[in-house]
Specification:
105 residues, alpha+beta, two-stranded antiparallel ribbon, two-stranded antiparallel sheet, 1 helix, 8 strands, 26% strand, flat
Length: 105
Amino acid sequence: MIEVETYKGTAVTEHRVEIVERKGRGHPDFMCDSIMEAVSIALCREYTKTFGTILHHNIDKGLLAAGKTLKTFGRGRLTKRMELIIGDRATFRALGKRYLSLISL
């Protein structure tokens, strides 16, 4: 059943219907969120291995800059790769230890 409700300026929690946007697997937001989650999980594993605990980190902001392609009928060629920029922070020193190695996903 589909139900449509007119917006009356009230809070979403007071509405019977909530609109939710779904972004597919190829959408840049989905890709960034998935990558940031994988980085956070890998960082937690490394923190546990190196420090014995999970240290403070904020790995949830990513920007995916589009690449470029040359397209012709039936084929295409990548001319510039996409670029991922991680705009967050992580702890690299604790308990007298320092961790600076790159995380391999």
